């Protein structure tokens, strides 16, 4: 099978040998894996091969064996490809009628696929071409929802750029998905750098990256305690955030003071920081409980004895 030979020996063949296959084999031929000439060309991000296929009027919006359209196929397999070749192939597909509005079998547009893969340069290309960005997937997730998922230290810098690109392009951060979550809600369920929160909320001061407001705007004192983010806690204490404020946030801190939150989750380090900075151990929450009451409720003898020395 000639098509299978092309796939199996792609790198060992000369360019002209490869391009002869692209000029002569039927466009609808499939190899043993069910891939067509177009699939193979995109899997290798072969610019010249793609040009040949486009001259032959290859269909640029059909779904392949994996449920992906050509743009999806190219984007999802782009991680280890030459970036310039990938971007050129995307431009060629777009110039020849490939649609960013059409979804794959997962209900995802090519733009959402690029965001999910953290492909910053591909997203920049789509934005520069003024393409429609705000379509949702099958679960009601828009671009910022997708970007907010799976944040970690390995992709943090890319996430920062993607958040900023999307916000600058007019994507709103308060839209809810089908489960009722905004992108900020999704990010809040992960242990991430608080700077990501500040950027996603649209509050980060890029002109003053060392500003303390970048941290305090990213995460409230109550949320910082819930996340055991001591750097943010210390910044709040330094700038004079109300250390006895009762939380009205829609999370596990609701109705509690910062000290109440720390006692509730048995975070001794936060308890000590708060007491050293003037937190009132006798302050009662909305349910009439003090920090000591919460410690007793949790039946934590160490915390109870420690609080007794502070009251």
From TrEMBL:
State one Pfam family annotation: Ank_2
From the record, what ranges are coiled-coil?
A: none
- Write out the entry's keywords from A to Z: ANK repeat, Repeat
- Repeat region (ANK), residues: 33-65, 106-138, 139-178, 254-286
According to the record, the signal peptide region is none
The cross-references to InterPro entries, in alphabetical order and at most eight, read:
Ankyrin_rpt, Ankyrin_rpt-contain_sf
Q: Does the keyword Repeat apply?
A: yes
UniProt protein name: Uncharacterized protein
The organism named in the record is Fusobacterium nucleatum subsp. polymorphum
